[in-house]
From TrEMBL:
InterPro entries for this protein: Cro/C1-type_HTH, Lambda_DNA-bd_dom_sf, MLTR_LBD
Example GO molecular function: DNA binding
Protein name (record): DNA-binding protein
Alphabetized UniProt keyword annotations: DNA-binding
SUPFAM superfamilies reported for this sequence: lambda repressor-like DNA-binding domains (SSF47413)
Pfam families linked to this entry: HTH_3 (PF01381), MLTR_LBD (PF17765)
Source organism (scientific name): Streptomyces griseus subsp. griseus (strain JCM 4626 / CBS 651.72 / NBRC 13350 / KCC S-0626 / ISP 5235)
CDD domains documented for this protein: HTH_XRE
Amino acid sequence: METEDPPGVGLLLREWRRRRKLSQLDLALRADSSTRHLSCVETGRARPSREMVLKLAEHLDVPLRDRNGLLLAAGYAPAYRESPLDSERMAMVRSAVRAMLTGHEPYPAAAIDRIWNIVDRNDAMSLLLGTVPPHLTEPGGNVMRLILHPDGLASQCLNFAQVRAHALGRLRHQADTTGHRDLRELYEEVSAYPAPPGLDADPGPVDPTGIVVPLRIRTPLGDMAFFSTIATFGAPADVTLSELAVESFFPMDEQTDTVLRSLAAMGPAGR
């Protein structure tokens, strides 16, 4: 049974260039090359040097994981290691993430990987996930599934349509700009989830007075409203680190802030 050969580095580079909506001239100027040489590379008539592959990948903003793929396709060894998060080499990273998560309390925060799986979280996240069934939270859960699955936070979300539209738009953009199959599969999965009974999936018009799309949820302690930020590590040289992010939730009103601080004062037993 014949199998197709993997695409060469030229085809992969052309794919990334088109994904970034750049012409050959645009990329050649950025990489201090010529359109003739770039054309020869893309058509396979010229083999780029290792340095040229890395330079083109940098100007195309290619993720580190895919830069390694480009190097392998060109016949070179990968340039970036991929260290397991629980390895000794990543001990400093784990400590930094843990400090960020605990330092954000009494507000919820979680560390996520490139496909939105939760790899660590602080105690305050239990407030958001306390009523979510185990099949969505074990071993750590996936942010997109937690938000959009009808058994997850979707059933408690007071502005589900707006949150769904924002989450799917973000995930679709990420899948389109990276081309990663697992992100596309996640998008196809969560976009097919039905809305919880009684909730409309149509987001309606955008609120022109808003500055962010909030997450408004109903809890046993009252309605709460959050907005979130995402932080990444600067100048990563490891694939795992380049794909790690910390999502931090902040209260949008005084009631939410008061509830969170009261829970923190009560300790784990109060949650």
